[in-house]
Amino acid sequence: MDKLVEQNTSSPITVKKTGVNLSAEISDIDLTQPMDDATFEAVDAALVEHEVIVFRDQEISSENLIDFGRRFGELTVHPFSPNDGDRPYLILFKNDENNPPFGTDCWHSDETFRECPPMATVLCAKDVPEVGGDTMFASMSAAFDGLSDRMQQFISGLEAVHDFKVFKNLFGESEEDRKNLIEYELRYPPQVQPVVRVHPVSGKKVLWVNPQFTIAIKGMDERESRSLLDTLFHQALIPEYQYRHKWRNHTIVMWDNRSVQHYAVHDYYPSRRFMERVTIEGDKPVGVPAADPDSLRKFKFHAKTGSDSHGGHTAPKRQFQRELDAG
Ligand code: SIN
After folding, report:
1. How far apart are CA 64 and CA 161, in angstroms?
2. Which of 44, 110, 163, 256 is catalytic?
3. Ligand 1 within 6 A of 135 CB?
4. Would you say the C-alpha torsion 114, 116, 117, 122 has a positive or negative sign?
5. What is the pLDDT of residues 119-178, one digit of tens each?
6. Is 123 a pocket residue for ligand 1 (Cβ < 6 Å)?
7. Per-residue pLDDT reduced to its tens digit, 303-314
8. 258 CB contacts (<8 Å, ≥6 apart)?
9. 257 and 118 in contact (C-beta within 8 Å)?
10. CB 101 within 8 A of CB 264
11. Would residue 310 show up in a list of annotated catalytic residues for this protein?
């Protein structure tokens, strides 16, 4: 049998591996119909193993997409993506000359600015351009494996700060807009995530930083943090870890958001591209063990008291602290 083709005769579906590090096509399934347990388990296992799974020629309704997603868990509502008002968990990417695509042409895992990012995303092509508008994926488990042993050891246990920074551009400049932005910053405060997460099902180690949402490595100065992040972000750009998906109408792609990043190629504008998407609730990422913070020599600054850890004395207050104290 071809090395890239896998067939399990006892499985209710056919899974054909289409990339060395990630992606498989699934056939012998009809997504307009409810999935029985055996089919669900086979699809779920294929998702974890291949990280990106593709279903071709599935002319499904929005309800079918929602039902398919719900088979894996609760659907989540993205605070900043365009959605269907009555069913806010149904994202509608309806792009054309009057509505250019926004914010998805950057490598990312979905919503890592939340404490519990989605475990998976399902995207359905309703009306795609003749050429262009591909979606690219990178296996971040392969990307982690591809790092040197030294780098793997160095980043294991580190933590990074994630923020919804790209979506701040959706807020305007007026005073009202600024107040609204502050409200959303309070609702979605920056989250600390492990730099290397352990996939909860496969146990694989996954590089868990992305250029869309990761803003800093905790405990490093800005220059160190920036250069380390640049090095780690570069892993997703290496073709060996990538799969580039070319869409046809009625194709559905599901990705394991715990182990892949994706990038929507915005080359098709001003053509029309219409996609529907749902995301499925995930767990709080668990990292590999952290270094003992007391073993670190530097950055023992305590924001609350303004004192450093060396003398223990109280430093003069900063102007914003005085203003806040004065009410
Ligand atoms: C996204 O989910 O980030 C968008 C993917 C796409 O439109 O291809």
Report:
1. 36
2. 110
3. yes
4. negative
5. 999 999 999 999 999 999 999 999 999 999 999 999 999 999 999 999 999 999 999 999
6. yes
7. 555 555 455 567
8. 109, 119, 120, 197, 199, 200, 206, 282, 285
9. yes
10. yes
11. no
Closest residue (by CA) to atom 5 of ligand 1?
A: 264
User: Both tokens of residue 305?
Assistant: 């008291």
Note if 108 is an active site residue. Answer: yes
Nearest CA to ligand 1 atom 1: 104
User: Residue 14 above 50 pLDDT?
Assistant: yes
**CATH says 14-296 is which class?**
alpha beta
Residue 277 designated active-site: yes
> What is the C-alpha to C-alpha distance for residues 304 and 314, in angstroms, rounded to an integer?
11
> Cβ distance 113 to 162 under 8 Å?
yes
C-alpha of residue 124 to centroid of ligand 1, in Å: 10
Q: What are the extents of the domains in the chain? A: 14-296
* Closest ligand 1 atom to 104 CA: 3
Q: In angstroms, rounded to a whole number, what is the distance separating the alpha carbons of residues 272 and 95?
A: 6
Euclidean distance between CA atoms 179 and 182, whole angstroms: 5
Count Cβ neighbours within 10 Å for each residue of 259-282 and write b for 16 or more, e otherwise.
Answer: bbbbbbebebbebbbbbbbbbbeb
Look up the pTM and report it: 0.89
Q: Ligand 1 mean position to 105 CA, how many Å?
A: 8
Closest C-alpha to ligand 1, atom 6:
264
Amino acid at 227: S
